[in-house]
Amino acid sequence: MLKVTDLRVTFRRSVKGQFWSAGKSLRAVDGVNLEVAAGETVGLVGESGCGKSTLGRAVLQLVRPSGGRVEFEGVDLCTLSEAQLRPYRRRMQMVFQDPFSSLNPRLTVGQAVAEPMRVHGLAQPHEIPARVAELFAMVGLSPNTANRFPHEFSGGQRQRVGIARALAAQPQLLVCDEPVSSLDVSIQAQIVNLLEDLRARLGLAYLFVSHDLAVVRHLSDRIAVMYLGRIVEVAGKQDLYERPLHPYTQLLLDAIPGTDRAYEKTRAPQILQGEIPSPLNPPGGCTFHPRCPQATARCRQEAPVPQPLAGGRWIACHLHG
Ligand code: SF4
Questions:
Q1: Domain ranges of the chain
Q2: Do 164 and 141 meet the contact criterion of CB atoms below 8 Å apart?
Q3: 34: closest CA among 277, 283, 206?
Q4: How far is the CA of 294 from the centre of ligand 1 (A)?
Q5: Ligand 1: centre distance to CA 227 (Å)
Q6: What is the pLDDT of residues 19-60, one digit of tens each?
């Protein structure tokens, strides 16, 4: 359904009224390849600032890529005008991290959910209230609450409204950008379960962006690990969690506490040292080398090229290829 090829997003921003020179541009997404099949959930993980949210927005053309291709059912969205993009925007919707800021405070939540149906002509005016009620029930909200405003809801309820609004456009793909990271842990599980249930009922595909590998594990079929604008490892869920190959993936997974308390007390997890470098001034060679416990002289000189491995797995690391 979705095929991303050599995607690049470069920002130039003004600093104190001056524009960065061409050489000082910020490469938020740097040559990403990724595919999502119909009905599949691909988790996209990495630390804050690694470019994963920008990649999600670039897939939907909310940020226009600087290069590469985003093909949705064979059509390269990067070549389309805003008017030509409109039908594709309906079929690919976004669920935002903060549903409060994505909902208009002056519209009731019922009006917010009805809006995509009106904009895209998906229902006759007299059909809309029943369709809104159906969507509310689908996401676990009482249809009687449709006349309330966003501020009258809790964070978890607002996220349910955000999901209902995305579903109102009848999409095939949802890009979920950290949809549970601002919620309490107990509410996170409810929203993750809701998304899983909706996927099964509606046959949706998800690109699920999160910094939390535990959340991604629950939902994903495959997982892509991103570091400083690049995908460093892609693998099926089981392969990635049971046999992570890239040193960055290994460190991210090692930081997740297990459920066996006795074992956790004796275990000494490897620590991911330092901060993610600025994409304005990325390290040479493998960009992970300053933090990598397995780095060699070659890693400081030469950027690894992504290599295919058995089982549809990909990795960008000199230790594998
Ligand atoms: Fe570490 Fe070298 Fe692999 Fe980069 S290429 S992840 S520095 S071992």
A1: 2-320
A2: yes
A3: 206
A4: 6
A5: 12
A6: 554 456 889 999 999 999 999 999 999 998 899 999 999 999
